[in-house]
Amino acid sequence: GIQVEQSPPDLILQEGANSTLRCNFSDSVNNLQWFHQNPWGQLINLFYIPSGTKQNGRLSATTVATERYSLLYISSSQTTDSGVYFCAVPLDGGYNKLIFGAGTRLAVHP
Amino acid sequence: GAGVSQSPSNKVTEKGKDVELRCDPISGHTALYWYRQSLGQGLEFLIYFQGNSAPDKSGLPSDRFSAERTGGSVSTLTIQRTQQEDSAVYLCASSPKLAGVTTDTQYFGPGTRLTVL
């Protein structure tokens, strides 16, 4: 089945720094989502981005479907950005059940 | 409500007991998913409901797990004869799954933290 790998597994930043999180997947996909899991456990949608580039405030994401990777950029990081970032793609090649990467745990210190 | 809701938020039970976890999806969403998040296994798919179709149960770890969705809305995940390895956060998600639309963002509830003693 499809494999999803995220890097780095852990990241520590000083407030104001920029970072790039990476998601590699082993097969072509038609759906890719980035989520932020906050310290209270809530999974929050960041981007639905099967291809191309999207931006939302300080966050942006790029998916290069032909090369099977996606990048999440966080600029001018804030302490509220702390948590775990997951990418997820469909387990079955469709749009349905998702398989998640292991996540990148981000800690932003003041 | 505005988002996916789940109840209870926390459940502590004794090994061997049955538990029921509830999910209320976003109104109008036709697709509903259950996932489990545990320390050893990360986030894993359990079961998927789409409209009136038969559910996709391919992710259920054993026959002690079952789920139903009544009236195309509320869903209940039941775990019979709970074991300690069932301890995890159980997450529910829903999505619009509109016909003819290929984008399908899943929206997650806050989860139920299950602890089996």
Number of strands of chain A: 11
First-last Cα distance of chain B: 33 Å
Rounded Rg of chain B: 14 Å
Helix proportion of chain B: under 10%
Ends apart, CA distance between termini of chain A: 41 Å
The assigned structural class of chain B equals mainly beta
Q: What overall geometry of chain A do the principal axes of the alpha carbons give?
A: globular
Helix/strand-derived class of chain A?
Answer: mainly beta
The low-confidence runs of chain B, each spanning 5 or more residues with pLDDT under 50, are: none
| SSE order of chain B | EEEEEEEEEE
As residue ranges, the low-confidence spans of chain A are none
* Rg of chain A, Cα atoms, Å: 13 Å
Mean pLDDT of chain A: 93
Discrete helix count of chain B: 0
List the helices and strands and how they pair.
The complex is a heterodimer of chains A (110) and B (117).
Chain A: E1 4-7, E2 10-14, E3 19-25, E4 33-37, E5 43-48, E6 52-56, E7 59-64, E8 69-74, E9 83-90, E10 98-100, E11 104-109
Parallel strand pairs in A: 2-11
Antiparallel strand pairs in A: 1-3, 3-8, 4-5, 4-9, 6-7, 7-8, 9-10, 9-11
Chain B: E1 5-7, E2 10-13, E3 19-24, E4 31-38, E5 42-50, E6 65-69, E7 75-79, E8 88-95, E9 107-108, E10 112-116
Parallel strand pairs in B: 2-10
Antiparallel strand pairs in B: 1-3, 3-7, 4-5, 4-8, 6-7, 8-9, 8-10
Structure, described:
In chain A, 0% of the residues lie in helices and 55% in strands. With 110 residues, chain A is mostly beta strands. Chain B is mainly beta. In chain B, the strands form 2 sheets. In chain B, strands 2, 4, 5, 8, 9 and 10 form a 6-stranded mixed beta sheet that branches. In chain B, strands 1-3-7-6 form a 4-stranded antiparallel beta sheet, with no helix packed on it. Chain B is globular. The interface between A and B is medium-sized, with 22 and 26 residues.
